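Example (one chain per record):
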Amino acid sequence: MDPLLTERGLEVKVPPLLRGMSSRDYFQRVEEQARDLTGNIYFDCSDATLIDSTALGKIIFLAKQLQRRNQKVVFESCPVTIRDFLTKLKVNNFIDIA
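Predicted structure:
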């Protein structure tokens, strides 16, 4: 599940359960590759069943940093439950949900 640098940006596979505290290494790898990134970050949420508030906070923080560089975070292939949850929290103000 390591992030993969592609032509369009950084591709990141979201695990079924993404918890901020137990996913420290996961976020560290994403943040390291995002430092010098010139494209966007694309999170593939197709396997996601839960994204907890700590993980979401880290992703929003990352999205705000990227916005300052005219880049963005995109959540792709979100299950309906995750999409509805993110929309209710107005996360779509910071993250594109495709």
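Caption: The chain has one domain: 4-97.
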